[in-house]
Write a structure and sequence with these properties.
Elements: H1 12-24, H2 28-36, H3 43-52, E1 64-72, E2 75-82, H4 88-100, E3 106-121, H5 126-143, H6 145-153, E4 157-165, E5 173-181, H7 188-207, E6 220-227, E7 233-242, H8 255-271, H9 273-293, H10 298-309, E8 319-324, E9 327-335, H11 344-347, H12 349-357, H13 363-386, H14 390-405, H15 410-419, H16 427-438
Antiparallel strand pairs: 1-2, 3-5, 3-6, 3-7, 4-5, 7-9, 8-9
The structure holds (R)-mevalonate.
């Protein structure tokens, strides 16, 4: 039976066995063994992971690595990264090393305001609603004090509440747009709790407001939720050096040519949406890897980054590059709503370790490190694209995946790596070469 009810109440082994019988058609014992092989040896640790999500059957591993030598605002970081893409950590590390001797990354947080919204319907005179809002604004602030007190002690809280009228777009639709400072936490729970409280106050106050009559007293709250679009939670990071110092990157190209091609490649991503998407994906290769390693919400970051990139009405590059008076400058501006306290950052043991590796940064510091990693990643990608082409480095890194897939022995790995030093790597080329070795028809 493929339909099931009460699945979440089954124990883990029964869930796996149900899955095996109904969807995998293998021997449930074999399937159970495979799932169990990825359980954590320590029962308590496994319980922790089980608790993160519903219907957890096992763990899904991703590589955890570090990119050393990141000099950011004169401090050296070793950046933890979680990614399955073979060339990402290597590219970040290489770019970090390159900029290490050229002043490093200069980063600053421009602002850290987050947004939440109470979406509601008001059936009545909008001028009366405006007056109501102005008169009751203090009541809104007073009614959330018990929720904001702790955050205020840390320097955060609710910065502003605005009433927005969208009744020209959707019948009777208005919004409370609330700005928050959530300090070192990403703040989703804090924001959502306050919004729900504001929604209650809104309904309550409207119901007893003397100037409202009839339906005006009955405000209908549609939903209260944070917005993942945080264009005012933004960080900037840049690198720069004299053009002639780019020679290390230019693969027999003159540094001037390298810089010109680099700038052009970035410019293309400013007007061509197909290129811009891939360009920004490359930046997110770096950003996501840090966001995941530190237990932050990569879906929120992705959603926001893409909306931000399209802010002008055209989806654009998050980075800009230029050469002015012989100086090459490369810069990223990106919204990153990150936290270093609360949520998974405290619960996931490896997220905690990542933050330790970074010296337990504030959220602002983590924003800067993450932006630097995105910029480094983009630098590495564009460098390869405008010189050797991406496959050169990519497939070399991919070679080890191919070899693992083809179950190459240590001895075979060495032979294959030597053989492909100056050749194009592809799955079929590696397989054919391995066959040659295995049938002894290849002589070294
Ligand atoms: C691959 O994951 C990322 C790149 O395609 C990024 C880019 O094209 O800029 C290499």
């Amino acid at each position: 039976m493929k339909e099931v009810s009460g699945f979440s109440k089954l124990n883990k082994r029964d869930k796996i066995s149900w899955l095996a019988k109904n969807f995998l058609y293998h021997n449930p014992l074999d399937v159970a063994k495979q799932f169990a092989s990825f359980w954590h040896d320590e029962v308590e640790k496994q319980k922790l992971f089980d608790g993160f999500s519903e219907n957890t059957l096992t763990n899904f591993y991703l590589p955890f690595g570090v990119a050393p030598n990141f000099l950011i605002n004169d401090k050296i970081y070793c950046v933890p990264m979680v990614t399955e893409e073979s060339s990402v950590v290597a590219a970040s590390s290489k770019a970090a090393k390159f900029w290490l001797n050229r002043g490093g990354f200069k980063a600053k947080v421009i602002s850290s305001v987050k947004i939440g919204q109470v979406h509601f319907s008001f059936n009545g005179d909008h001028r009366k609603l405006n007056t109501f809002f102005k008169r009751k604004k203090d009541v809104f602030f007073d009614g959330i004090k018990h929720l904001t007190a702790n955050m205020e002690k840390r320097g955060g809280g609710v910065r502003d509440i605005q009433l927005l009228d969208f009744s020209h777009l959707e019948e009777n639709y208005y919004q409370l747009k609330v700005s928050f400072e959530t300090c070192d936490s990403m703040g989703a729970n804090f924001i959502n709790s306050i919004l729900e409280q504001l929604a209650l106050i809104l309904r309550e106050e409207a119901s007893k407001y003397e100037s409202f009559t009839g339906k005006e007293k009955d405000i209908e709250v549609i939903m209260s939720i944070l917005s993942n679009y945080t264009p005012d939670c933004v960080v900037e990071c840049e690198v720069s050096c004299p053009v002639e110092e780019l020679h290390e990157n230019s693969h027999q190209m003159l540094p001037d040519d390298f810089a010109r091609r680099f700038v052009k490649a970035v410019n293309i991503a400013n007007f061509d949406v197909h290129r811009a998407t891939t360009h920004n994906k490359g930046i997110l290769n770096g950003i996501d890897a840090v966001v995941i390693a530190t237990g932050n919400d990569f879906r929120a970051v992705e959603a926001c980054v893409h909306t931000y990139a399209a802010m002008s009405g055209t989806y654009k590059s998050l980075t800009i590059a230029e050469v002015t008076d012989g100086i090459f400058k490369f810069k990223i501006r990106v919204p990153l709503a990150l936290g270093t306290v609360g949520g998974l950052t405290n619960l996931h043991p490896m997220a905690k370790t990542s933050l330790d590796i970074l010296g337990n940064p504030s959220a602002a510091e983590l924003m800067m490190v993450t932006a630097a990693t995105g910029l480094a990643q983009n630098f590495g990608a564009i460098r390869s694209l405008v010189t050797t082409g991406i496959q050169y480095g990519h497939m070399k890194m991919h070679l080890s995946n191919i070899l693992a897939q083809l179950k190459a022995s240590e001895e075979e790995v060495i032979k294959v790596q030597e053989y492909f030093v100056d050749k194009i790597v592809s799955f079929s080329a590696v397989r054919e070469f391995l066959e040659l070795i295995r049938t002894k028809s290849y002589k070294v």
